[in-house]
Amino acid sequence: MYPPAPPAPHRDFISVTLSLGQGDDGSKAQRRRSCWRKWKQLSRLQRNVILFILAFLMLCGLLSYISVADQWKAPGGRSAREQRARPANPPILPAPQKAAADPGDGPVRPPQRPQRHARRGPPNLQIRAPDRDAQGRRQDGSRRREGAVDEAHQQQNPPRTVVSWRGAVIEPEQGTELPSRRAEAPSRPSSWGPRILKHVAAPNERQKAVIDAFRHAWAGYRKFAWGHDELKPVSRSFSEWFGLGLTLIDSLDTLWILGLKKEFGEARRWVSRRLQFQKDVDVNLFESTIRILGGLLSAYHLSGDPLFLQRAEDFGNRLMPAFQTPSKIPYSDVNIGTGVAHPPWWTSDSTVAEVTSIQLEFRELSRLTGVRKFQEAAEEVTRRVHALSGKKDGLVPMFINTHSGLFTHMGVFTLGARADSYYEYLLKQWIQGGKRDAWLLEDYLEAVAGIQRHLLRRSEPSKLAFVGELAHGRFSAKMDHLVCFLPGTLALGAHHGLPAAHMDLARELMDTCYQMNRQMETGLSPEIVHFNLHAQEGQKDVQVKPADRHNLLRPETVESLFYLHRLTGERKYQDWGWEILQSFNTYTRVSCAALPPGVPPPAQSRGASPLGRVPAVHTRTDQVPPGPSARPGQLCAPWGGHGAPAPQDAARPRCPPHRRSLGPGPAAWCVRQWVPGSSGDRHRLWRPRSPLVTRGNHK
């Protein structure tokens, strides 16, 4: 036998086998198999949810890229800073400045002239040193001249970014930009001076008539109601609404535009010395914004006087408590002395037109002062209305609750009172903001489409286009004079790149608004008209109810005529405005009338606050007080006895025994017997039923 083999020696180590390359590939494959195995282990619902989320994220990213690229990518691939289009009209107004002291009535310093270059030619030719070689100088000079011509052409015709929006060609512009800090506001001039062009063409006969009419109305206000809200022309007194000189402030821009420097200086001194906002009085947010705040801002832009901007900022601060509501929808009234805001005593609602028609003024106040709160508060209102339900194809109801922030009185849609200027301010905010707020444009275009779909009809027999009302699904052929803002708004939108069909509709509606004046005996539109939808023999397109046969000297028609005349260049719109001015002069202007005992005033003793909003289109004049030189029992014809003569064959209308007639000819009014002191300056007018001569027969 052999002896057993000796045991193997003990080795104190381990063996490790390394695989180069194969192990990594195997682990990757294993991980792929592991992920796939985990995916297969998920339920079908889980897999579908994950796939849906991924697809949704990809779609959102794609849409965001397309939207950004479509709006801001310039044709030449320039940077975002260079892609901004230049403003259509470069800013030439003075930068806002807060003066430490009131400029007073000291001497006015003429505006400084811009520095002129010592050498002629574009500036880029003046800073280049001459070349050594004459031939090189000629070649470089030729190239520089070509470059200068190209540069000048680009400056005159800057490239504009074109955005497509529902078939409309829209060109973003440099608009109102809110400063990030008050310190960034531009420096303000230390003095102000007249900025009327030196070489102004002499006014023609029509322009002289406009200026004379305004002077006549202003003289009555200055003599009998200076510094008060409104003139009562018949009683030669005044009435107060807020006690803030509404007529004076609202007429500052008109005084400047008409070149009435003396009258403007007197009004400015009143604003500087007498206007006080620290008083315990409730003001309507909407009315005070468009008249006082808007009037002060307009006066500042035209004159450059920092006094108006100071007063505008002070007044804007006093209006801010109205925005402190649970819904951010402002109250209708605010006390500018105590800072307490509240809704009307009869309801907690505000009208949609009032809360959405203050944005232009507050946004501009923020731009000029650098204070963000004005624009932020006003824009928040528009954004909340934008997000509300209850609209009908862009049309909004008339009321909104300040506590809940929701529409009330649903189902009634109109472009008349309580809703009209909402649509106007949508477009103008979009333009004011440089056409960058697409949601404003979307709301405006949707509203115009809704108007065409639900409210636009044609009358019989003349097929006049008009905008009616919709109440709980039933159409009413009722159109307020307020709706005549729409032709001008549509024309303004078409001018800024919206569809040309808007201009076509503007022309049709403008003709309708003109006919609302022309078909009346006085040539003045009533407050409300009703159109005939069914052809009937002997009937006109327009009918007026007795309660609506009054004219409040509203500016909507002449404002739209101004837009149409400026944007189309057609003289007929100016001629129509001239006819309306003549009618106002004939039937509302009283130059010298002393009312005898027992005879009532011939017209409402109330003058409209804005004495002339659109003087360039021969706008209206206000009623003026009777002069003191008339004898008792004498009644003077309009324009001091130069009224329109009545036809010889027109019989004088006869009034009932208990009423008296005022004025000669067929335009006479029959009035009730008037007891002095019983009704103040209020009265009731009665139209005689005898045959009347239409306006077209006795121009």
UniProtKB/TrEMBL annotation:
Residue ranges of coiled coil: none
Annotated protein name in UniProt: alpha-1,2-Mannosidase
Broad class of the protein's primary localization: endoplasmic reticulum
Similarity comment: family membership: Belongs to the glycosyl hydrolase 47 family.
Pfam annotation, one family: Glyco_hydro_47
Native organism taxonomy: Eukaryota, Metazoa, Chordata, Craniata, Vertebrata
Transmembrane segment boundaries: 49-68
Reaction equations catalysed: N(4)-(alpha-D-Man-(1->2)-alpha-D-Man-(1->2)-alpha-D-Man-(1->3)-[alpha-D-Man-(1->2)-alpha-D-Man-(1->3)-[alpha-D-Man-(1->2)-alpha-D-Man-(1->6)]-alpha-D-Man-(1->6)]-beta-D-Man-(1->4)-beta-D-GlcNAc-(1->4)-beta-D-GlcNAc)-L-asparaginyl-[protein] (N-glucan mannose isomer 9A1,2,3B1,2,3) + 4 H2O = N(4)-(alpha-D-Man-(1->3)-[alpha-D-Man-(1->3)-[alpha-D-Man-(1->6)]-alpha-D-Man-(1->6)]-beta-D-Man-(1->4)-beta-D-GlcNAc-(1->4)-beta-D-GlcNAc)-L-asparaginyl-[protein] (N-glucan mannose isomer 5A1,2) + 4 beta-D-mannose; N(4)-(alpha-D-Man-(1->2)-alpha-D-Man-(1->2)-alpha-D-Man-(1->3)-[alpha-D-Man-(1->3)-[alpha-D-Man-(1->2)-alpha-D-Man-(1->6)]-alpha-D-Man-(1->6)]-beta-D-Man-(1->4)-beta-D-GlcNAc-(1->4)-beta-D-GlcNAc)-L-asparaginyl-[protein] (N-glucan mannose isomer 8A1,2,3B1,3) + 3 H2O = N(4)-(alpha-D-Man-(1->3)-[alpha-D-Man-(1->3)-[alpha-D-Man-(1->6)]-alpha-D-Man-(1->6)]-beta-D-Man-(1->4)-beta-D-GlcNAc-(1->4)-beta-D-GlcNAc)-L-asparaginyl-[protein] (N-glucan mannose isomer 5A1,2) + 3 beta-D-mannose
Uppermost EC category: hydrolase
Organism: Phyllostomus discolor
UniProt-listed InterPro entries: 6hp_glycosidase-like_sf, Glyco_hydro_47, Glycosyl_Hydrolase_47, Seven-hairpin_glycosidases
Compositionally biased region (Basic and acidic residues): 129-153
EC number: 3.2.1.-
Pathway note: Protein modification; protein glycosylation
Domain of life, source organism: Eukaryota
Example GO molecular function: calcium ion binding
Topology in the lipid bilayer: Single-pass type II membrane protein
Location relative to the cell: Endoplasmic reticulum membrane
Region Disordered: start-end pairs: 77-163, 679-699
Function of the protein: Involved in glycoprotein quality control targeting of misfolded glycoproteins for degradation. It primarily trims a single alpha-1,2-linked mannose residue from Man(9)GlcNAc(2) to produce Man(8)GlcNAc(2), but at high enzyme concentrations, as found in the ER quality control compartment (ERQC), it further trims the carbohydrates to Man(5-6)GlcNAc(2).
GO cellular component, one term: endoplasmic reticulum membrane
Active-site residues per Swiss-Prot or TrEMBL entry: 287 (proton donor), 420, 527 (proton donor), 556
Cofactor dependence: Ca(2+)
Keyword Disulfide bond carried by entry: yes
GO biological process: carbohydrate metabolic process; ERAD pathway
Disulfide bond positions: 484-513
Alphabetical keyword list: Calcium, Disulfide bond, Endoplasmic reticulum, Glycosidase, Hydrolase, Membrane, Metal-binding, Signal-anchor, Transmembrane, Transmembrane helix
